[in-house]
Amino acid sequence: MKLFYRSYGSGEPVIILHGLFGISDNWITHAKRLAEKYQVFVPDLRNHGQSPHSSTFNYYSMVDDLREFMKDHKLEKAMIIGHSMGGKVAMNFALEHPYMVQKLVVVDISPRAYNTRSVHEDIIAAMQSVNFDEVDYREDVEERLKVHVKDQRIRWFILKNLHRMNRGRLAWRININDIAENMENIATGMVYEGAFPGPVMFVRGSESDYITEADEELIMNYFPNAAIQTIEGAGHWVHADAPDELCNLLSSFFGKECKL
């Protein structure tokens, strides 16, 4: 699958993979900071953003998409950053294609399986509830979302997926129906076996429960050269909650400055 992507800067390649219900636009600030030293690629994963839709939605397919993306751009090896679902894609990719990963950064997700979370169920219900025959403006859509999603910040995150089609009709870019049908595939643990020998940094938010002390043994089994860093005061969306702190960690790990 040919993924839509954004690209910034020049130099050694860095690929950033967004999370579930996300879009490449979520990481533009960090991409531009890293672009002072690197060539940064930020693709939309399948069924997200401007990338193609498919009823096949699992880590096998997304790992294949990333391999195809790197080959299309003649990237023999890259540093890969993945957040949440994108972190699971990145981890699985490193296990299946370790020679293509120079360094790996996993943001607020562990290799274990997760139960489907109520916030995900609420987001799906909210997005599927919108009848685009009945709305004309962004504000109209947000009013519909309020029924299922009370948190304004999450509503704004969802609304990143909104766009105008021909003749001004609003629609979701994201393939929400096929994502909903495949949530078990996304909540699963690693689909590839083995261990990645290269350097890995896990970054967790202190206010998030996605990476716990109980996960550390499993992390080290798959990634024996991993370091786990905690950013105080940050939740699951670490890159939005603590952009400067994350930038500093990336600078230290990559060995080149992430411009603040």
Write the layout of secondary structure elements.
Blueprint: E1 5-8, E2 12-17, H1 28-34, E3 38-43, H2 59-72, E4 78-83, H3 85-96, E5 101-107, H4 118-129, H5 138-145, H6 152-159, E6 162-164, E7 170-172, H7 176-181, H8 183-187, E8 200-205, H9 216-222, E9 226-231, H10 238-241, H11 243-254
Parallel strand pairs: 2-3, 2-4, 4-5, 5-8, 8-9
Antiparallel strand pairs: 1-3, 6-7
Helix pairs in contact: 2-3
Summed up:
The protein has 260 residues and is of the alpha/beta class. The protein folds into 2 domains: 174 residues, 3-Layer(aba) Sandwich (Rossmann fold); 64 residues, no CATH class. The chain is built from 11 helices and 9 strands.
CATH architecture of the largest domain: 3-Layer(aba) Sandwich
State the share of residues found in helices, binned by percent.
Answer: 25-40%
General shape: globular
What separation lies between the terminal Cα atoms? 34 Å
What are the segments in which pLDDT stays under 50 over at least 5 consecutive residues? none
At the fourth level of CATH, the homologous superfamily of the largest domain is Alpha/Beta hydrolase fold, catalytic domain
Count of helical regions: 11
Average pLDDT reading: 95
What top-tier CATH class of the largest domain fits best? Alpha Beta
* Chain oligomer state: single chain
Number of domains: 2
Counting helices, strands and paired strands, the structural category is: alpha/beta
In spatial order, strands of the major sheet run 1-3-2-4-5-8-9
Please report which band the strand proportion falls in: under 5%, 5-15%, 15-25%, 25-35%, 35-45% or over 45%. 15-25%
Element order: H for helix, E for strand: EEHEHEHEHHHEEHHEHEHH
**Beta strands, count:** 9
